[in-house]
Write a structure and sequence with these properties.
The complex is a heterotrimer of chains A (356), B (338) and C (121).
Chain A (H helix, E strand, L loop, with lengths): L2 H10 L9 E4 L4 H4 L3 H12 L4 E3 L8 H5 L5 H17 L4 E4 L2 H16 L1 H15 L8 E4 H7 L1 H7 L14 E5 L2 H4 L15 H8 L3 E2 L14 H4 L4 H15 L6 E4 L3 H17 L12 E3 H8 L17 H7 L30
Parallel strand pairs in A: 1-2, 1-3, 3-4, 5-6, 5-7, 7-8
Helix pairs in contact in A: 3-15, 5-7, 6-7, 8-11, 13-14
Chain B lengths: L2 E5 L3 H12 L3 E5 L14 E2 L4 E2 H10 L6 E3 L4 E6 L4 E5 L4 E4 L1 E4 L3 E3 L16 E3 H9 L14 E8 L15 H15 L4 E6 L9 H10 L4 E4 L2 E6 L5 E7 L4 E7 L1 E6 L1 E3 L1 H10 L26 E3 L9 H20 L1
Parallel strand pairs in B: 1-2, 1-9, 2-5, 9-20, 11-18, 12-13, 12-18, 13-14
Antiparallel strand pairs in B: 3-4, 6-7, 7-8, 10-19, 15-16, 16-17
Chain C lengths: L14 E2 L6 H9 L11 H5 L1 H5 L4 H10 L2 H7 L8 H5 L6 H25 L1
Classes of the chains: A alpha/beta (356), B alpha/beta (338), C mainly alpha (121).
Bound molecules: iron/sulfur cluster (3 copies).
Chain lengths: 356, 338, 121
C-alpha cells in the first residue's frame, strides 16, 4: 500500500470546519447505545479545548431513522430539519454540529436539495412558519462531531495522558476504522478524505499514536441499514453484513475498531455477542471480541478519563483487555456503579464470548 | 509555395506532414515534446497483427525528410488570422506565416487515479495498460511488487471510459482489443497464470478482432467475466481483491488477483483545450474537436483554413488515424487550390 | 446450544472465487475442448426444450462450471433430452451435445467418488 497515493487523494477532500461557537444536536439513539459519548464530546470541547458549544433542549430527532425506513415524507423531514436550524438561529449560532452520521448525511442531503430545488426550501420555510411561526437561517458551516475532534486531534494529542501503544511490545496498537455510510458515501466532498479512503478517523488514530490497518471489507456497511435491523425478519441480513467485516478484519488482529456513527459501533459490538451465541465464533484474542469504540470514547481514553465515566461498561465486548494493553488503570468494583454511586445492574454472562 | 502548419507531431501529424510535403506544400510541425511519434513512443506492440510499435514509428519517421521543418519542444503562443493566412508565434521565437493549419493534438491517457476505488497509485499491484506496454517495451517481466510471477491477473475494461463519474461517457474503442492483446501476451509470458477480463461489452469491431477474442478463449484459456469492476482492495499479502457482479449469473463475485491491469481510456488532450482557445475552435461535450460533417468532412474544423486529424476528434485506432491524416492532407490541398 | 434469537445469519450470495474449485470445468474441457469457445450468448438456452420447463440452461451451466459451482450443474444436467437443437444454433461451434454428454459422464464419476467417500465414513 502506498501511503503517498492516499495522501494525494486526501488533499482533494478537505473541508472548512468552524473553529469555535458550535450549535450541537444530539443523536436520538446514541444516548442509549453509548450513553457517555456525547457528554464526553462536550467535556472535551469545553474543558480541554475551551470552545463554546451550545445545546438546545427543544431539539428533536432529525427523522433520519423513520425517513430511511420510508415512514415519513421528505416534506416532514425537511420541516423538522428547518426547525432544528431555527433553534440554532434563535440561539445566535451559525456552526451546526451533528452528533449522528445519519443526521449529518440527511442535513447535507436537504441542504443540497434546497440548492438544486429552491422551491423546496421555500416550501420548508412556509411549512415551518405555518406549524410553529418560526424562521431560520441555514448554517454557515455543517460538520459532523467527528470532524471537530479531527480538527483538534493534535491539540488533544498534546494533552493526552496515554498513547495508542501496546505497553508489552512497545508497538503502536493496530486499529481498524469503520466510517458510517452516510458520512461521505453520498457526498464525498463533505467528508474529510472523501468516500473511498476517508481520513477523518485515520487522522485521529495517527495523532493518538496508533497504526491504521486497511482491511478488504473496510467500505462494507456495518449492516444496521434501517428496516434491516428494525424489522426482525431482516436481521439475518444485518448480522451477516457485520460478520463479513469481522471475517475480513480478523486476519490483521486489530486491537480495536474505531467508528464515527451511532449505529455502527452498536452493531459491530452487539453482533459479536450474537454471532458468538449463534455460531460459537469469537473474533478477538483468547475468546474475547474485538473492542469497538466511538471516537469520543477514544478521545476520553487518551485524555485519561475514568473508563467508567466513558460508559465503557455498557459495551458488550469487554474493553478491559484494550485498557490493559495501553496501561490504563480501572477499578472493577466501580464498573457497575452509576455516577451517583448506585448499582446500575449487571449484564448476564454470555455463554461463549469472554467478558470481565 | 503555400505553407501548412501542423500542430502536434504524433502519428496523425507525421503522416499528414509527409503527404502534404509530397503534394508540394511547405510543411512545419510543432511538437511540444522532444521527439516526434506521440504515444507510439510508449507502446510495445499493436493489434491485430502484434507488429512492433517501434517498426511503425520507424516507418513514419523515415519519411519525415529534411524539407519538413520540425519545431520540437515548442508551443504555439499566438495565432492571428488575416484574410487568407495565419500568423503564428511559436515559443522558440519563430513567427510563421501559414496558409492552412492542421491540428493533430491527439489524446491523453485517462488518469487512473481518478477512479479512486481501483487504487491506482495506492495499491502496489495495480498498473495500467500503458504501464504494461512500458514493461513489455523494456523487456521486463510482469511481476508483483514482491518480485514473484503473478499467478492470477485481472484485466479491467473501460477504466475512465463509458463512465459519467469519470467524466467520459464515450467508448475509447481501442481498449477492448488492447485488453485481449495484452491478456494473450501475458499468457505467452506466463503460461501457468490465469487471466480474467472484466468487461461490460466486448467491442471487437475491427477486422480480425473477433478472431483474436476467440483465440484468447480457445487457445489461451483467457476468461471473460461480464461485470464492471466495482471496487478493489489490497490484501495483507499485496494481492488485490476485486468485487464485480457476474452479471450473467446475477451474483456478486469477489476474486483475489496478484496483479490488476486497468485499461485506461483516451481523453481529449490538455493540448486540445489550449489550442481550441488560440484557434477559436469548437469542441463537443466529450472534449474532442467538432468536425464539419461526420461522414463526409471528418477532417474539416469549424474554422475555414483549419483542419483536424487523428485522436483529437475522438478515440481512433492507428489505422484510422493514418487514414484520417491522409484524408486531411487531401482536404487541405483542396482548400489551398481554391 | 446455539441460542435462538428468532432469526438466522443470512447466507452469502457472493461468489467467492478463491473458495471454489474449477476442477470439474477442467475435466469437462479435457473431454470437450470446444466448451472454451462459449461466449455466453444464450442462443442454446433459448431454443432448448428442457429449458422451457425446467431450470436447464446450458449457457448458465457452462458459466457455473467456469466459476466453480459444480454441484448445481450435477444436480440438473440429466434434464437434457439430448435432442441436439442447441448444437444447431450455437454460433461458436461448441459441440453442445458432446459437451452435455461429457458433463453427464463426469457428474456420475464425481457422484460415485462422493458415494465412496460417504461409504467409507
Ligand atoms: S473499447 Fe472496450 S474497454 Fe474500451 S471503452 Fe470501449 S467497451 Fe470499454
Ligand atoms: S440437446 Fe439438451 S440442451 Fe441441447 S437443446 Fe436439446 S434438450 Fe436442450
Ligand atoms: S449457443 Fe453456444 S456460445 Fe451461445 S451460450 Fe450456448 S454454447 Fe455458449
Amino acid at each position: 500500500m502506498k501511503l503517498e497515493g492516499k495522501k494525494t487523494l486526501w488533499k482533494e477532500y478537505q473541508k472548512e470546519i468552524a473553529s469555535d461557537n458550535y450549535f450541537y444536536a444530539r443523536s436520538c439513539i446514541r444516548q442509549n447505545f453509548f450513553p457517555a459519548s456525547e457528554t464526553t464530546f462536550l467535556r472535551v470541547l469545553r474543558e480541554e479545548l475551551g470552545k463554546t458549544i451550545h445545546e438546545d433542549a427543544r431539539h428533536t430527532t432529525c427523522t433520519g431513522i423513520v425517513y430511511h425506513s420510508d415512514l415519513v415524507t421528505i416534506e416532514t423531514t425537511m420541516t423538522v430539519i428547518a426547525r432544528q436550524f431555527s433553534l440554532m438561529t434563535q440561539s445566535g449560532y451559525l456552526n451546526y454540529v451533528a452528533s449522528c452520521i445519519t443526521s449529518f448525511g440527511l442535513y447535507t442531503e436537504i441542504l443540497d436539495m434546497w440548492e438544486h430545488f429552491p422551491e423546496m426550501e421555500q416550501k420548508a420555510r412556509e411549512m415551518l412558519w405555518k406549524a410553529t411561526k418560526r424562521e431560520f437561517e441555514k448554517p454557515k458551516s455543517l460538520a459532523h462531531a467527528s470532524d471537530i475532534i479531527y480538527k483538534f486531534r493534535n491539540e488533544i494529542a498534546a494533552k493526552s495522558k496515554y498513547k495508542l501503544i501496546n505497553l508489552n511490545t512497545g508497538q503502536p496498537l493496530k486499529v481498524v476504522e469503520h466510517i458510517g455510510c452516510h458520512y461521505s458515501k453520498m457526498f464525498p466532498h463533505k467528508g474529510i478524505g472523501g468516500a473511498e479512503y476517508p481520513y477523518v478517523l485515520v487522522g485521529m488514530i495517527e495523532a493518538f499514536g496508533g497504526e491504521v490497518v486497511d482491511y478488504p471489507e473496510r467500505r462494507h456497511c456495518c449492516g444496521f441499514g434501517f428496516r434491516q435491523y428494525i424489522v426482525k425478519a431482516n436481521r439475518g441480513f444485518s448480522i451477516a453484513s457485520s460478520r463479513k467485516k469481522f471475517e475480513s478484519m480478523t486476519p490483521y488482529k486489530p486491537d480495536f475498531i474505531l467508528t464515527n456513527c451511532p449505529g455502527c459501533p452498536y452493531f459491530l459490538d452487539r453482533w459479536q455477542y450474537a454471532i458468538s451465541e449463534m455460531e460459537g465464533i469469537t473474533y478477538g484474542e483468547n475468546g474475547h471480541g474485538i473492542p469497538v469504540l466511538t471516537y469520543e470514547e477514544l478521545t476520553g481514553i487518551v485524555l485519561g478519563y475514568n473508563p467508567w465515566d466513558l460508559g465503557l461498561q455498557t459495551h458488550q465486548v469487554a474493553v478491559e483487555p484494550l485498557l490493559d494493553k495501553i496501561g490504563i488503570p480501572y477499578d472493577l468494583s466501580q464498573k457497575y456503579l452509576g455516577s451517583d454511586g448506585e448499582f446500575i445492574g449487571k449484564p448476564e454472562k454470555p455463554s461463549v464470548l469472554k467478558v470481565y | 509555395m503555400k505553407h501548412v502548419l501542423v500542430i502536434g507531431g504524433g502519428v496523425a501529424g507525421m503522416e499528414a506532414s509527409v503527404r502534404l510535403s509530397q503534394m508540394g506544400y511547405a510543411v512545419s510541425i510543432v511538437e511540444q515534446s522532444d521527439k516526434l511519434g506521440g504515444k507510439l513512443n510508449r507502446w510495445h506492440s499493436l493489434s491485430p497483427d502484434n507488429s512492433n510499435a517501434s517498426d511503425l514509428l520507424g516507418k513514419l519517421k523515415s519519411q519525415i525528410h529534411q524539407g519538413i521543418h520540425k519545431h520540437l519542444n515548442t508551443e504555439v503562443l499566438s495565432v492571428i488570422k488575416n484574410k487568407l493566412h495565419f500568423v503564428v508565434g511559436l515559443s522558440d521565437g519563430t513567427d510563421l506565416k501559414t496558409d492552412a493549419i492542421l491540428v493533430s493534438t491527439g489524446f491523453d491517457v485517462f488518469d487512473a487515479q481518478k477512479k479512486e476505488e481501483y487504487g491506482y497509485g495506492i495499491y502496489d499491484n495495480v498498473i495500467t495498460s500503458a504501464d504494461l506496454e512500458q514493461i513489455f517495451r523494456d523487456e521486463d517481466e510482469l511481476k508483483t511488487t514482491s518480485g514473484t510471477a503473478p499467478k492470477r491477473i485481472g484485466i479491467i475494461h473501460c477504466v475512465g471510459s463509458r463512465d459519467e463519474k469519470a467524466g467520459h461517457t464515450y467508448c475509447s474503442q481501442v481498449c477492448c482489443i488492447t485488453a485481449v492483446k495484452q491478456a494473450i501476451e501475458i499468457k505467452e509470458h506466463l503460461p501457468d497464470s490465469e487471466v480474467f477480463c472484466f468487461y461490460m461489452d466486448l467491442r471487437m469491431f475491427g477486422r480480425k478482432f473477433e478472431d483474436i477474442y476467440r483465440d484468447a478463449q480457445v487457445k489461451h484459456g483467457i476468461q471473460f467475466i461480464r461485470g464492471r469492476l466495482s471496487e478493489a482492495f489490497e490484501n495483507p499479502d499485496g494481492s488485490v481483491m476485486l468485487k464485480a457482479e457476474d452479471t450473467l449469473l446475477g451474483k456478486p463475485l469477489k476474486m483475489n488477483v496478484d496483479k490488476v491491469i486497468l485499461m485506461v481510456g483516451m481523453i481529449a488532450s490538455a493540448k486540445t483545450k489550449k489550442i481550441k482557445e488560440l484557434l477559436n475552435l469548437q469542441i463537443e461535450d466529450d472534449g474532442f474537436y467538432s468536425i464539419a460533417d461526420t461522414h463526409y468532412e471528418s477532417t474539416k474544423s469549424s474554422v475555414p483554413g483549419i483542419f483536424v486529424a487523428g485522436a483529437c476528434t475522438g478515440p481512433k485506432t492507428i489505422e484510422n488515424t493514418i487514414n484520417d491524416a491522409r484524408a486531411a492532407a487531401i482536404q487541405i490541398s483542396e482548400y489551398l487550390k481554391q | 446450544m446455539a441460542k435462538d434469537f428468532g432469526y438466522t445469519i443470512s447466507c452469502d450470495r457472493q461468489i467467492d472465487f478463491d473458495k471454489l474449485s474449477r476442477s470439474m470445468y477442467l475435466e469437462v474441457k479435457k473431454a470437450e475442448p470446444s466448451v472454451d469457445a462459449c461466449i455466453s450468448c444464450g442462443t442454446c438456452a433459448a431454443t432448448c426444450t428442457a429449458g422451457q420447463f425446467t431450470d436447464f440452461s446450458l449457457r448458465k451451466f457452462i458459466l457455473l462450471l467456469r466459476r466453480g459451482d459444480s454441484l448445481s450443474v450435477i444436480q440438473s444436467i440429466d434434464k437434457c433430452m439430448l435432442c441436439g437443437k442447441c448444437q444447431l444454433v450455437c454460433p461458436m461451434g461448441v459441440n453442445t451435445r458432446g459437451l452435455i454428454y461429457s458433463i453427464q459422464v463426469i457428474s456420475r464419476r464425481i457422484e460415485c467418488r462422493n458415494r465412496r467417500v460417504v461409504n467409507k465414513m
